[in-house]
Design brief:
- This protein is of the alpha+beta class and 381 residues long.
- The chain has 18 helices and seven strands.
- A five-stranded mixed beta sheet has the order 1-2-5-4-3.
Length: 381
């Protein structure tokens, strides 16, 4: 019964999103077989409550659905205005910039403000990251992360989170995206209405989104919003150069995954394709996505890590995973534990520091990871 209830909630979430995208309204009977509160929680976990609320206007639904949409609208208005201030400051300092992801995808949603976002991402000239930091500090931001990874994170009350990227991807040692995007400047197209702004062609934006989505799918997971994004993007770009896209995605070794993601998005949210049966791989991906939430979870992150080490060592993959969790690569030490990176003699104490920090501050995450390692068995494909 519990499994049926959870599956019904996921099914209803997809139906609501399809309705919202296609301009349809549900009636009072929609909640006959599911809890409205539980469905709201699930939609919130996937950051799609604002979009889903568009299909509930004819229902006397709980006010929290509409409040979520209004809150998302408020955040979008605030971010749009604040981003304009930041981009003007970059312009004044001659720093080139390229807005990314949700900044552009939000414009494809059926109603302004219904794509929920927690931050804005902007690629900038990495050689001028220090100048960009001064700009952000002058605008009242706090640098939460600077110089540790491929993006610098800034925050300002009440809601502003901006990530200024030095590169589109960090080098994780396994994906091809880092090397593929080292020459990103060659793919950037100059904006016509400013001095320093750039954008990607529709084809290159799609390729980037697929590569970015792959990072999440092979990490802690990604939620249904990513597939809404893909559907709405494709629905607004009917004449893409697919020969170019497939050639470039082949260079990223993501040809099969892109096809699964694209077909799944179309089948889920298109009126024409909603009756089509999902393939086995599409069903597997959908189940993974619906249990992930927008930003994934520790279980998926651990499982994906175990799968990678299973390929390297089929018999000892759990030991190999634990070894890598305890003994971090130098690049990780340099960025996140600089004291231990500089003082080799102290490194044996790092594993105890991290373990006890996990027990005290992240006990639930640690329990989940240990449970997966102990109880889950990774099967061969």
């Amino acid at each position: 019964m519990e499994a049926y209830r959870k599956e019904k909630l996921k099914e209803k979430m997809v139906v609501l999103l399809r309705d919202a995208i296609n301009g349809r309204q549900e009636d009072e009977s929609f909640f006959n077989d599911v809890s409205a509160d539980e469905l709201y929680v699930l939609c919130t976990q996937h950051n799609v409550s604002a979009l889903a609320s568009l299909a509930l206007k004819n229902i006397d639904a709980d006010q929290k659905w509409q409040n979520c949409r209004l809150n998302s609208l408020r955040r979008t208005v605030l971010f749009d205005a604040e981003r304009e201030t930041i981009l003007n400051s970059l312009e004044n300092q001659g720093i080139w910039y390229l807005p990314l992801k949700g900044i552009l995808l939000k414009d494809y949603y059926p109603v302004y403000g219904t794509r929920e976002m927690s931050d804005n991402d902007i690629l900038i000239d990495k050689e001028k990251a220090d100048e960009a930091k001064r700009i952000m500090l002058d605008l009242g931001y706090t640098a939460r992360v600077f110089g540790k990874t491929n993006h610098d994170a800034y925050y300002k009350q009440p809601v502003y989170n901006f990530e200024l990227h030095r590169s589109l991807f960090a080098d994780n040692g396994r994906d091809l995206a880092f090397s593929y995007y080292q020459g990103i400047e060659a793919k950037m197209v100059k904006d016509a209405d400013n001095k320093c702004g750039y954008h990607l062609s529709a084809e290159d934006f799609y390729i980037y989104f697929i590569a970015h989505n792959h990072k999440h799918l092979t990490g802690s997971g990604t939620g249904i919003r990513a597939f809404v994004d893909i559907y709405l993007f494709l629905n607004n770009h009917s004449s893409l150069n697919w020969k170019y896209i497939k050639k470039e995605i082949l260079n990223l070794d993501l040809l099969e995954e892109e096809e699964i993601v694209r077909n799944l998005s179309l089948k889920l949210f298109s009126d024409q394709d909603k009756e089509n049966q999902l393939t086995e791989k599409e069903t597997e991906m959908l189940n993974f996505v619906l249990t992930s939430g927008t930003y994934g979870n520790r279980k998926n992150l651990t499982l994906n890590g175990l799968r990678r080490y299973k390929i390297k060592s089929p018999r000892c993959y759990k030991l190999l995973y634990l070894y890598r969790r305890f003994f971090l690569p130098n690049e990780v030490l340099k960025n996140y534990f600089p004291f231990f990176y500089k003082h080799v003699w102290a490194r044996p104490f790092l594993m105890f520091y991290r373990f006890f920090r996990g027990v005290l501050l992240r006990s639930n995450l640690l329990k989940t990871e240990l449970s997966v390692i102990i109880n889950e068995r990774i099967h061969d494909d």
